[in-house]
Prior knowledge:
By secondary structure, the protein is of the alpha+beta class. The chain has five helices and ten strands.
Amino acid sequence: MARKKLRPAQNIEVRQSIKDSKFFGSIFSVSSREKAEMRINEIKAKYDDATHNVSAFRVEAGQNEALEYFDDDGEPAGSSGPPVLEAIKGADLLNTVIIVTRYFGGTKLGIGGLIRAYGGTARLAIQEAGIEELDEFHKIEVEVSFDKIGIVLAQLEALEAEINESKYSNQGAVAAAVIRADKLEPLKKRLKKKTAGDYELKIVTTFFK
Length: 209
């Protein structure tokens, strides 16, 4: 089954006031832990006079795995970082970092109030940024005998694959293409039928776009 990934559609900042405190929510799409940490440091430098710069991120850490992180940055333990991370997870976002900056206004919010304020600011940032859905694609190579390369190319075109090149040798021919993951099995079935199983298909790499 083809997988999908969700990430913020844009990098933005939202602002709101809650009981005299100002909360800024900065959300970014990132490609790695290093990029997420770079964004966190960027916001900390931008708002170095803030009372707190709470952060959380969720990034890829291998196929079907995610690395999750949060930092309360001086707020009571569990009152700020976890609600921001839960907002990210609740929206099923990946490769996402959110930093919620707080300028204390003099009124204490209590643990419950902090959880609502930080989580709410993170969710507002997600809402305003929008969510982009990425589809899974495979870069493939299909090897067949020379006389059957036309069949392969025709089936790739029929399934709307992007054909990159066709290479020929004394041993046969190889078609290189990019195809949506959900069309890979239909391609295999068609090739098996039309070539009598006389083909080899290799997935070179998998990516999302």
